[in-house]
Amino acid sequence: MATLTSEGVRRILGPVDNALLAEIASVGASERELAEAHAWVMSDEALVNDFRPMPKGKVAELVDILHRRFGPGGEEELG
Known about the structure:
Number of strands: 0
Helix content: 55-70%
Number of helices: 4
Order of helices and strands: HHHH
Largest sheet: none
Structural class: mainly alpha
């Protein structure tokens, strides 16, 4: 699996600051893993209703990062 690049992050999340890029990069995830985490943050109820297993590993780490920043009560809106 290829390491996630800043272009990959921006392709999935839209414009993000360098602090968030660094935090996401520290996980060592792939673009696919970030896309899955993004889907969980944007529509976790729908994914649970589809009987998808809860995220684990790197995806779970990314969900935590994204939820802190963009989830309910987070600092920003996610595109």
